[in-house]
Structure formats: structure tokens, C-alpha cells
Amino acid sequence: MQAVVLDTNALLMPFEIRINLDLALRDLLGEARILVPGPLIGELKHLDHRFAKAALTLARRYEIVHTAASGDDAVIELALKEGAYVLTNDKELRRRLRKESIPLIYLRSGTHLVLDTYMGQRSIRFSVLDVWPSRFLYPL
């Protein structure tokens, strides 16, 4: 079973753009183990955002894993430790993930999640399109 690490902005995504993360990830990867780095719980508790409380409730539904690092470093540490994908829309974090060759998932066009796996210089991207049956993966 694949593992997916969520960062703070991924936890806010369902409330900002009304996307069901569980269904979108299932369509993209099949059954997946969803992980939240422990330090992000504290970050959400102190975040001044109108959906922070809802995102905190959502985060507690998933497996919370304690890490030594905090912030983006915690996300990267957990992804490397678990061999997991990272779901984020944070451009700086995406750049760091690509540099570390960690596969990532991000929101494209505000409508669907995209899987972006870097293997050296080669990129393989898949997208779940809303128009077609959601059980299929379509190469871009």
C-alpha cells in the first residue's frame, strides 16, 4: 500500500476548494496510507486561518507520525523514512521534494490532483480527469 504525507496546505485544501482528499487520492493511487507529521498539528493549532480548526479535525482522522524536524523538514523527513508521496501545493516545498527525488502530488487547475514522479531527469505525470470515469489513470 502506498503512503502519502500531507503538509499544512494539503490539509486546508478540502475546505478552500471543496475537494474530497480521500476520494481523490484513492482515484489516483488506489488504497493509500495517509500520514501527517506530528509538528503540523501544532502548526495548525497556532495558524490564523479561517479553516485551521477544520483542517486540524481532518488531520486527526489520519495517522499522526512524530518527527524530529518541524515544518517542511518534517514532511521531507517522513516522506524519506516511509518512501511516501507528498501531497502539497507549496511551490518551495515542491522544489525541495524534486531535488530530493521524492514523488509528489499536487492540485492542478484547482480541479484535480496530479501525480508527479521524478526519476533523474525524467518526469512521469498522471492526472485524474473529472470528465472520465475516475477509476482510470490518464498519462498527460
Q: Given the helix and strand composition, which structural class is it?
A: alpha/beta
CATH superfamily: 5'-nuclease
Q: Please describe the biggest sheet, giving its number of strands, its sense, and whether it closes into a barrel.
A: 8 strands, mixed
Any idea of the CATH class?
Answer: Alpha Beta
Low-confidence stretches: 120-126, 128-140
Strand order of the largest sheet: 3-2-1-4-5-6-7-8
Amino-to-carboxy terminus distance: 24 Å
Taking all Cα atoms into account, the compactness measure Rg is 14 Å
Gist of the model:
With 140 residues, the protein is of the alpha/beta class. The protein has helices spanning 8-17, 21-29, 38-46, 52-59, 71-82, 91-99; strands spanning 2-6, 32-37, 63-65, 85-87, 104-108, 112-119, 122-127, 138-139.
Task: List the keywords.
8 strands; eight-stranded mixed β-sheet; disordered C terminus; 6 helices; globular; Rossmann fold
Overview of the molecule:
The protein is of the alpha/beta class and 140 residues long. The chain has one domain (2-139): 3-Layer(aba) Sandwich (Rossmann fold), CATH 3.40.50.1010. 41% of the residues lie in helices and 27% in strands. The protein has six helices and eight strands, in the order βααβααβαβαββββ. The protein has an eight-stranded mixed beta sheet with strand order 3-2-1-4-5-6-7-8, with helices on both faces. Helix 1 crosses helix 4 and helix 3 packs antiparallel against helix 4 (52-59). The two termini are 24 Å apart.
Give me the secondary-structure topology:
Elements (H helix, E strand, L loop, with lengths): L1 E5 L1 H10 L3 H9 L2 E6 H9 L5 H8 L3 E3 L5 H12 L2 E3 L3 H9 L4 E5 L3 E8 L2 E6 L10 E2 L1
Parallel strand pairs: 1-2, 1-4, 2-3, 4-5
Antiparallel strand pairs: 5-6, 6-7, 7-8
